[in-house]
Design goal:
The structure is a single chain. The protein has seven helices and 19 strands. By secondary structure, it is α/β, with parallel strands linked by helices. It is globular, with a radius of gyration of 21 Å. Bound molecules: FE2/S2 (inorganic) cluster.
Amino acid sequence: MNFHPLKIHSVDRLTPKAVSIQFEIPEHLSAAFDFLPGQYVTLNYTTKTGETLRRSYSISNLPKEGVLQIGVKELEKGAVFSAIANRELKAGDIIEVSEPEGRFVFDAADGSNVVAFAAGSGVTPILSIARSVLESHRNSRILLVLGNTDAASIMYSSSLKELQRTYDDRFVLKHAFSRSNEGDYFGRIDKSIINHSLKAEGGVSSFDLAYLCGPEPLIHECKAVLSATGMAEKSIHFELFTASEAKQEVATEGEVEIKVILDDKTYNVRGNADEFVLDLLLEEGIDAPYSCQGGTCSSCICKIQEGAAEMERNQVLTDKEIANGFVLSCQAKATTPTLTIDYDNV
Ligand code: FES
């Protein structure tokens, strides 16, 4: 994973609990920070107490604007970095930022009519995707159903309004508020809201692609409705913002010898098979790529060349990819005494 120190150009408040951070991209890094709409970056931040935090954030602006913009919502339950971002970060600060990555991307070649369902900070990549969809073709259109507690908690509210003004005939935005009846829908985005919003815009057959971004129940509900009403699985893209509580325990025993191919170098690691492969590598000081460490972001994907490993959580890889030997190393435990993994050919 390649990190580069980037200077913060500005920090703008979006809501009482969220900020937008804009990084300057120096000319010599413009190729490294080229991205596709929907991708994310990982920030590597060392706190005053010396703790290193890695967090992934989706990019909310458009490619080739010379800047990189992310939205950070302050989370509860001891989420240290989001609190620092909301309370302390300021213009001029330097932060290590990874080159953009992620497979939740919009490609205009796949279609120009898009439906998107997002909740809370899930709007961040969708904003980039929405602008790209609308600029991709003069007849392209997007329906966005956005869930929040109320109007005050909408991230990028003014950018969304601006988009509505610019593309009033091609951008349909519907708000679902869970604690206010001032939106188009009341309550969390559920089956009835999904069905109603689709029907009002001509049904699922009017859309080529779907983008879903938010917590797991939202993704599951939307996927179920879209599939049941005829959208092909390959046309439904999703990005989870929280790790699933559900996990499948992997029973392992003894020691494992791991051969690691990373950045054209080979490393050998020995450790307890009951530890996650990524943890074993990091303990040995190997700079393996990672971000969420929860099976949601895909930063840590590698390919098994020899041996076997199983994952406890996986919200990224398809069955086909797993069958082809891909694993999330942050969730994988070796189930054979030797294991060879390759981070370079993924
Ligand atoms: S580090 Fe995010 S899926 Fe492994």
